[in-house]
Amino acid sequence: MSTLLIAAAVGIALGILFQKGRFCFVHAFRDLFAFKDTRVTKGVIAATGLTMFFWSVAYALGYYQGFWTPGWGLTGLIGGFIFGIGMTYAGGCASGTLYRAGQGYLHFWLVLVSMGVGYAVFTVAFPTLQSLYFDPLTFGTGFTLFDSTPLPAPVVAVLFIAGFLAVYATVLGREGKGREKTKTPDAASVALAPSATVSGLRSLYDGTVEYLRGFTEIDDLRSAAKRPWDPRTAALGITVVAVVWFTQVSIVGVTGPESRWTAYLLQTVGIDSGSYEYWGSVLFAGDGVSITVDMVMIGFVIVGAFLAAFWSGDFRLRVPKRERLPNAVGGGFLMGVGSRLAPGCNIGNIYSGIAELSVHSFIAAAGIIAGVYVMTHWLYRDVGCAI
Amino acid sequence: MSTPEWEDVVEMPDELDDGTAEALAEEADEFQNMKGEMCPYPQVEAKKALSSLDHGDLLVQETDHVPSTENVPKAVEDEADAKVWRSGDGLYRIFLHKR
Q: How many CA atoms lie within 13 A of A49 on its CB side?
């Protein structure tokens, strides 16, 4: 019973944070490629890095329930790519679809149904895919870098985050320098300028200070809370919630529980979904098709997003344009199938998977981002992309 | 024309009150109904429309998609100045003045 209460609270909190922070991974990567908008990308990076650190501490202290580490191989790249194509075409990732369903978008309810069709088709094809796809393309058993070195997990996490920040700062610094060069072509100042990494770290530091100063400038907390939040603020909240979930239940996933919902709903209309190998023995692990705690959590994400949207004045029953139906149906179907072929969605692989340093998830994340890149270029074919 | 920068601090566009938004909507040189649309179509349509408008012209998008109020202005930030009106019940108007 208490686990169910935690599931409800975690789900509602995540729904509120996803909605207020517009925590959509399509937004995070599509807009980065299309016009170098990093607003949501920074939120995703902040949430992943912070979660990685606090999960590593919880793991080292023994306060955790388990990791999610599927076998690694090309399946992550292929399934991730299909999922990335699908979510960019649909206009929302797994978390974006959930929070917008709560916000009143009929489009994203249709995406959810289409994802359900994708899960079902995959499940029927699973025995064939097992021998033709998973067996040949999975190269090794999954593992997390947290326990594959003699170093304590928090040290591994800090090293990883430091390495990432160094690369990120170097890219930032190079961009900044490129900008200065085009403005003032002064050889002496370029020679005297600090290295790209140092100037990048400085601008990263300035950006963080500026972000924190933003909080002191809020004069009316209530109206500020009603406006959309900086995704980094949502990232802080998501980290807290994810740590609670990690210590009590598991890592945060979306499409696994959704696939279980599909099996459960089909069973309520008289289909013996438990007799299919993928649902019966893999997802429900032989325990029978019933409502599990992560399914409850995912359901309450929609409730939380509804509450946040309603309170903020952003709830509205939105009817999609007819020409967007292929996006919902086709995109949703590819998301359902892709997330099973990988396995895992953007939350399971980019957010949770990288935060738990699962080797499979690095491969799947690369596949998802490649899918977003290709689809973004197709959608922007008339006006062109920045990257 | 400058290219978009990687690390620009992205400010939210200024918000308009009901009266100003109503009056400004009358001056629109082009009006795009984006209700029921998904990203990134409003961004793409705004870019296309702005390229055929003249300096100082006003493009107005009416939308019910919340993310558009941020990423449409961001997508065309080199071509247009943006202001946003929020109805309070999930309908928004984006005002884009071509520079």
A: 16
Domain boundaries, chain A: 2-42+70-151+248-379
Q: Do B64 and A376 touch (CB under 8 A)?
A: no
Q: Which residues of B touch A101 (CB under 8 A)?
A: none
Query: Domain B12-98 belongs to what topology?
Result: Translation Initiation Factor IF3 (3.30.110)
For an interface test with B, give the residue of A36, A177, A203, A223 to mutate (most B CBs within 10 A). Answer: A36
> What is the domain partition of chain B in residue ranges?
12-98
| A314 touches B: beta carbon within 8 Å | yes
pLDDT digits (tens, 9 = 90+) for A270-315: 999 999 999 999 999 989 999 999 999 999 999 999 999 999 988 9
ipTM: 0.83
Structure tokens at A72: 């690694």
Indicate yes or no: CB of A320 within 8 angstroms of CB of B10.
Answer: no
What token pair was written down for A177? 């320098």
Helix (H) or strand (E) holding A3: helix A2-21
**Chain A partners of B90 at a C-beta cutoff of 8 Å?**
103-104, 309, 313-316, 318
Q: Strand, coil or helix: what is A61?
A: helix
How many residues in chain B?
Answer: 99
Taking CB atoms and an 8 Å limit, are A379 and B74 in contact across chains? no
User: How do residues A218-264 score in pLDDT, each as one tens digit?
Assistant: 888 888 888 888 899 999 999 999 999 999 998 999 999 999 999 99
Cα separation, B57 vs B68, in Å, equals 20
pLDDT in tens, A132-154: 999 999 999 999 999 888 999 99
B36:A36 CB<8 A: no
Whole-model pTM: value is 0.91
